[in-house]
Each structure stands twice: as structure tokens, then as C-alpha cells.
Write a structure and sequence with these properties.
single chain; about 625 residues; Rossmann fold; 4 domains; 7-stranded parallel β-sheet; 19 strands; about 40% helix
């Protein structure tokens, strides 16, 4: 059989090729479940001699190996996991849990440049330490991240890992409209079987024991779920549960009511439990009708014939929501649409499901409007119980003030990290909807005056307290708020920062070195208005670069830098003399570097939104 790219894969391959021609060394492809991202990676990497494919589940690695074998028509591949340590094949499929161990990130196994092409599957996991170690160790010619759910997992941002380079993106709505996936019929069902208002989130998650108290033995809730399952008559369903006990509870409740069901979870040993692959086979054959699972079917499992998914616990993030929804969207003979049953009680953040369902999706914007006016993919529908509409209205009226939300998120991030977060920490780990809220509310935006924000919370250390009463704070505040229509000022500021050894003045050569280093990285050259291509960037003379540096960022820093930037004989640009008094304060150096990194990264976030999401 001849395997060739099709549909969205062809579009993505062209976009990836163009991105590499522009100088990109890494990028993310975001495509809804069912588009064939693994085959896309196999096609795109076909001309590279050595390839590494990294994933976190064995099933994903085995499926990927079959896809690569079909495309390459070669058996020159091996596995690097808990049992096998293959190091001499052209294509290696590696478990992140194994390869992410520092013991194996060593030339004894693989040199940093061994792989020409690296694929990170389910790239939203790349924020974890093991993935970051792998990405940091290897130096491929190109790194490709694949994901259906790119946004922040537990508040972490994956785009920065790939320099906000997203060559190709096909949202769920487009995939459904193009007939690549089936539509969904979503039913929001009011769960009045208990009071969930006392449930509180910790580090973005609900306490499993508290959920179990409300779910285990709750026959009223079991009956509610069973009756709605019968109402819609699914043939093959997945139910997403909060714990092993909950999965066992649900499987038992359905079996007692005559619906053959099993529970699937790691190290399964319960009365109704079944090993995952055996459960999948039984579901496909019709021997059972429902699999109740715990964190085992969110991703990496392909059962196209599933025609119903049931959300039986509070959904904590848009990422999890889209993963679970995606389990049933693949096309299958005789399946016209996917039925989605979401059982929603009066728990904290219940109203966020409206955001998860919206095309802004990913937890942003105003979300789905139950009163109508929301644009859904073709053939899709959303139906909320009338009591849920009342619940959402009540929650909206009680919504916290922006300042309180931002402060609460700051302390959540601090709790998660175990230390006071820097600007970059807060930017990276802050939930995306809270970050967007902060940007929309200037006076509650901590990034506009981070030292002032920390001072208001009593979070400053001694060095920072001393910095706050000096001109150094004014300088940091200037950088926090300087106009950033372009990113040109950042390499100039980096020249002053000088990797933490702050300079009081910079020469033309030092500016040129910082400028060329910054804009030769990845596709940064595209931000230069006088550069037309990657090759053109390398052809431009140092004299021309310097002329632009002086005409643009140097000129604007002198004009709008509130007197902090001055001319000095023998130098291209200097800092005013009295800043020398604060340069010995470690807090000044720390915040100087931190604010530069944050402003540059936020610029690329905005550029990505404008160029990819607003102008697809």
C-alpha cells in the first residue's frame, strides 16, 4: 500500500517546509485529534537520516512506529524505554520517562547532535522537567511539537519552547467543517444529586478524596447518569471518572442495571477492572458498551467507533476538556455525530465550560452564550439544562474582582513553584484566562509594575526593598511600560544587560553583536522591516544594520527613555551616571534581566496571536 499525505497534512507539510526555509529550527503543529499528526511527522521527517520520536505512553510509541514504518518502508527503527535501550537505529521511539533520565542524556548513549529531527508528541506535556531535559540536551536540525491541545496545561506555556513558531494550525471547528471529524451534540446536564459548593481547588485541581465522598455510594447520581445514557442509546461509550473507586463504582452501577461495562485504570485490581487493551477489544467487539476510565483515555488512544463520551467529574482545564472530547470525534462507519454528556453540579468554576466549548476555546473570551449567538462548527449543537443557565448567571454575579483573581493566581503559582515567582515565572505558569484578564485591566496588571505589585503583597526581599526607593526602580518601570510595537529595543537592552554583567555604556560593535545574535535566532529576522528573507538578512552589511539600530531603537530610547539613555563620546549609547549607584544591587540586575525576557516573550506571544490566530 502506498502511503501519501492527504488534506490538512499536505497543507502542514508546505507550511513546515516554508518555515524551515525562513530559518526556523523548531515549531509546533496544532491540529485536532483525527487529522493524522503522527503520519504528518513521518512524512515531514522522511528526508532526515536520524529521527527521535518522544512520547509518554508505550501505546503511542507502538502506533508511531507502525506509521513511520509505513511511510519509510524500512525496519531500521528501535525503542528506547524501560525494557529496551536501542541506540544504533535511524529512527528511535523513546519513552520520556526513560530518556528523560539524566543517566541516559549522555554521549555514552546519544551525542547531542545524534538526531537530525526530533518529534515531541502531545507537546503540551513538554513543560514537564523530563521533557525539558530532553529538549535542552539534544541539538537537532529541526524539532517538531505535535498537539491537539496547545494551550497552557496547569498554567504552563508551551509556545515559548518553540519561540512562538506555529507553522500550521487547524482548529477543531475547521476540522469538523471540512469533514475530517464528526460533529458533536453536547448536553449539559444539571447534577442535583449533592452539594458541591464546598469543593475547593488546590493548585488547579479538585481533591480526589472530597470528590469520592460525594460520588461513591451516591445512587441518585448513578441513576441520573444511567437514565441519560439510556436516553441517547450509545453503542460504545467512554466515561471519564475522578478515581479508581469512582470508576469501579460506575462500572458496577451500570453492570447491575444490565449495561456491560468495565473500569480501566493503572494497576487495575478491582472487581470490575480490566486491562486497557483488553477493554478496548471488548468495546470494539460489542462485548461491553462502556469503559469507565481514570486518566487512561485522555490521549493517545484511537477508538473511532466511540459514539458517546460522558464527563462524570468536574473538568479542570480546557486542555483536559478537549482531550476527552477528542476521544470520540474520529469518523467511523455509521457514526453521524458524537454525543457528549456533561454532568455539572454547583462546583467552583462550573461556568468555565462555556469557555471550553467556544471557538476562542482554550478558556479565553466570553465563551458560549446559552442565549444564542455563538458560532459552532457545522452540525454541532449545545443544550444546557435550564437550571445550569440559572447557576451560570448566579456565578457570574458573584465573580471576583480582577485584582483579587490576579492576586489569587499569583499565590497559586508561588505555591506551585515553591518560591516567589519572577515575571517570567508568572507569565509562564499563570492560567491563560487570568493573564488575559490582567492585560485587559491595566491597573491590575502586575507586569506593569512588578516591584510595586510584590510590595503591595509584602513579598519583597531586602535587596528589592532597597531598590524600590531608588532611581533603579524607575528604570525597571520604564522598561516594563516602554512601547513595543516592534521588538527592536530588546537586543539593545540585552547589550546593556550583558548576561548579568551590566554595562553603563555600549559601543557600536557591542550593539551590533547583540542585534545580530537576537535576530539570527530562529525566525526573529522576520521582525526586521528592512529584511525580506533569511538569506537577505545574512547579506546585509554591518554598516546597514548599524544604521538601522541608530535610526530606530537608539533614537527612540534617547527620545522617550525619560533621560535614562544618553549620548556619550566614544559609545553608541550610554546610561545616565546615577544608575551606577544601583548596579551593585543584585535585585536591580535580577529585575533588569527578567523584565527584558518578559517583554520579549510577551511580544512574540502577541505576534503569534496576530499572525496565526487573527490572520490564519
Amino acid at each position: 500500500m502506498l502511503y501519501e499525505p492527504r488534506g490538512a497534512q499536505i497543507e502542514a507539510l508546505c507550511a513546515l517546509r516554508n518555515s524551515r526555509e525562513e530559518g526556523a529550527e523548531k515549531g509546533i503543529v496544532q491540529a485536532a485529534t483525527g487529522i493524522g499528526k503522527t503520519y504528518l511527522a513521518a512524512f515531514d521527517s522522511a528526508d532526515y537520516k536520524t529521527v527521535l520520536f518522544v512520547a509518554h505512553r508505550e501505546e503511542i510509541l507502538r502506533q508511531a512506529a507502525r506509521s513511520f514504518h509505513n511511510v519509510r518502508s524500512s525496519d531500521d527503527f528501535g525503542f528506547f524505554d524501560g525494557e529496551t535501550k536501542c541506540t544504533d537505529r535511524s529512527v528511535i521511539f523513546a519513552s520520556v520517562a526513560t530518556l528523560g533520565n539524566e543517566r541516559y542524556l549522555d554521549p555514552e548513549y546519544f551525542s547531542p547532535d545524534y538526531f537530525e529531527y526530533i518529534v515531541i508528541d502531545e507537546f503540551h506535556h513538554a513543560v514537564t522537567d523530563q521533557y525539558r531535559k530532553i529538549v535542552g540536551y539534544f541539538k537537532p536540525k529541526f524539532l517538531l511539537g505535535l498537539t491537539a491541545t496547545p494551550d497552557r496545561m496547569d498554567g504552563r506555556n508551551i509556545y515559548e519552547i518553540c519561540d512562538y513558531n506555529v507553522p500550521y494550525e487547524i482548529p477543531l471547528k475547521d476540522a469538523i467543517n471540512k469533514g475530517m471529524l464528526v460533529p458533536f451534540h453536547y448536553y449539559g446536564i444539571y447534577d442535583d444529586s449533592g452539594d458541591y459548593s464546598g469543593l475547593k481547588m488546590h493548585r488547579g485541581k479538585y481533591d480526589i478524596d472530597e470528590l469520592n465522598v460525594r460520588y461513591i455510594g451516591n445512587e441518585r447520581r448513578n441513576e441520573l447518569i444511567y437514565k441519560h445514557f439510556c436516553k441517547f442509546g450509545a453503542k460504545k461509550a467512554l466515561g471519564f471518572c475522578c478515581s479508581r473507586k469512582h470508576a469501579e463504582e460506575m462500572a458496577g452501577a451500570f453492570c447491575r442495571r444490565g449495561i456491560p461495562s468495565v473500569a480501566v485504570y493503572s494497576n487495575s485490581d478491582g472487581e470490575y477492572s480490566e486491562e486497557r487493551s483488553a477493554a478496548i477489544d471488548k468495546l470494539k467487539s460489542g462485548e461491553i458498551r462502556v469503559i469507565f476510565s481514570v486518566d487512561m483515555f485522555n490521549e493517545g488512544v484511537d477508538i473511532p467507533s466511540v459514539d458517546m463520551v460522558m464527563f462524570l467529574r468536574p473538568t479542570e482545564s480546557p486542555v483536559i476538556f478537549m482531550q476527552q472530547l477528542g476521544r470520540g470525534l474520529r469518523k467511523s462507519r455509521g457514526k453521524d455525530y458524537l454525543i457528549v454528556l456533561d454532568f455539572i453540579g454547583n462546583f467552583e468554576n462550573a461556568g468555565k465550560v462555556r469557555n471550553y466549548l467556544s471557538e476562542s476555546g482554550r478558556g479565553r473570551g466570553n465563551g458560549i452564550n446559552p442565549a444564542g449567538g455563538s458560532v459552532l462548527p457545522d452540525g454541532c449543537m449545545i443544550d444546557f439544562d435550564m437550571r445550569l443557565i440559572d447557576l451560570f448567571d448566579e456565578m457570574d454575579r458573584k465573580q471576583k474582582k480582577a485584582a483579587d483573581i490576579v492576586k489569587a493566581e499569583y499565590f497559586r503559582v508561588k505555591d506551585q513553584l515553591g518560591h516567589i515567582p519572577s515575571r517570567m515565572d508568572l507569565f509562564t505558569y499563570m492560567a491563560d484566562d487570568v493573564y488575559m484578564l490582567a492585560l485587559r485591566n491595566s491597573k491590575n496588571n502586575p507586569f506593569k509594575d512588578y516591584l510595586g505589585f510584590l510590595k503591595g503583597l509584602g513579598e519583597l526581599d531586602g535587596d528589592e526593598e532597597r531598590l524600590c526607593g531608588t532611581i533603579g526602580r524607575e528604570f525597571i518601570h520604564l522598561i516594563e511600560n516602554t512601547n513595543m510595537a516592534k521588538v527592536y529595543k530588546m537586543p539593545v537592552l540585552k547589550a546593556f544587560y550583558n548576561d548579568g554583567v551590566v554595562r553603563t555604556a555600549v559601543t557600536a560593535d557591542q550593539l551590533l553583536e547583540s542585534w545580530k545574535s537576537f535576530f539570527s535566532s530562529g525566525t526573529n529576522w522576520k521582525d526586521l522591516s528592512y529584511v525580506s528573507s533569511r538569506d537577505n538578512f545574512s547579506e546585509i552589511s554591518d554598516r546597514e544594520h548599524l544604521r538601522k539600530i541608530v535610526e530606530m531603537p537608539v533614537h527612540f530610547l534617547l527620545e522617550s527613555g525619560k533621560g535614562f539613555f544618553v549620548e556619550k563620546e566614544g559609545y553608541a549609547l550610554a546610561l545616565r551616571d546615577d544608575l551606577k549607584d544601583v548596579m551593585g544591587n543584585p535585585a536591580f540586575v535580577k529585575h533588569f534581566g527578567d523584565v527584558i525576557d518578559y517583554r520579549a516573550m510577551d511580544y512574540y506571544r502577541r505576534r503569534y496571536i496576530i499572525t496565526v490566530r487573527l490572520n490564519p
